[in-house]
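Whiteboard transcription, Tuesday session. T.W. wrote the structure tokens on the left side:
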């Protein structure tokens, strides 16, 4: 049965590409393959990776060792154990995130997941958990963008995604424009482990999935709750990370 379906898809592909050609996730220009950026948008992406802070993935100018930690994490260690992001936040990553978040383009989650997958350090038994939205925001938007990304990543990597592991029990104001302390205060008491999943957290390695890492207030709030519930290790994986000076 699989072979006839594959042949049918192959036969229909030219028709679909003519009617609905693949487009760049950044600017909408026609591209040769789905989930591919055009040359201009690709050139504006700043890919993140080593050398960087072992905790928060802040890029280093030169290699300082695999366990090197930035000054910020030394002064105020985050509640999570390791964060990684696919790209630095800038013009194109922002457009892609906004298309997923507010543009009614859930398919963009698959594009984002493909770029995040190279940073997915997930031994057997790891749980992927999206940063939750408050129910009012889900009703307004129709979906949680982090849950769509987590689902796509889990499907690609053969991992378990618990989309309802965490709950956002308090609606929080937009954090943009707030200072670090204001952000921490805003998310205090906002999250909890869903009561039905409390037994699934103890001793587990959990990777929190989100679209953009800015100050860390949200993922730190989630990580604290998971650690209190007995999680052994908390990772964070995002599409983009704000890096001062990297914005286009």
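and on the right, the sequence the group agreed on:
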């Amino acid at each position: 049965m699989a072979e006839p379906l594959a042949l049918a898809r192959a036969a229909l592909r030219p028709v679909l590409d003519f009617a609905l050609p693949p487009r760049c996730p950044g600017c909408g220009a026609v591209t040769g393959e789905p989930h591919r950026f055009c040359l201009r948008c690709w050139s504006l992406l700043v890919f993140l990776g080593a050398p960087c802070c072992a905790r928060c993935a802040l890029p280093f100018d030169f290699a300082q060792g695999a366990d090197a930690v930035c000054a910020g994490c030394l002064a105020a260690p985050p509640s999570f154990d390791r964060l990684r992001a696919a790209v630095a936040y800038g013009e194109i990553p922002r457009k892609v995130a906004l298309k997923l978040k507010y543009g009614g383009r859930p398919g963009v989650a698959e594009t984002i997941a493909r770029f995040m997958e190279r940073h997915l350090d997930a031994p057997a038994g790891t749980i992927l958990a999206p940063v939750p939205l408050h129910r009012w925001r889900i009703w307004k938007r129709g979906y949680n963008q982090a849950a769509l990304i987590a689902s796509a990543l889990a499907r690609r990597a053969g991992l378990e995604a618990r989309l309802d592991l965490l709950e956002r029990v308090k609606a929080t104001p937009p954090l943009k424009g707030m200072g670090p302390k204001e952000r921490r205060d805003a998310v205090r008491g906002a999250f909890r482990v869903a009561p039905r999943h409390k037994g699934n957290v103890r001793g587990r390695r959990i990777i929190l999935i989100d679209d953009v890492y800015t100050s860390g207030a949200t993922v730190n709030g989630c990580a604290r709750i998971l650690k209190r519930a007995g999680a052994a290790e908390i990772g964070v994986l995002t599409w983009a990370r704000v890096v001062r000076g990297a914005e286009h």
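Someone added at the bottom: DSSP finds nine helices and seven strands in the chain.
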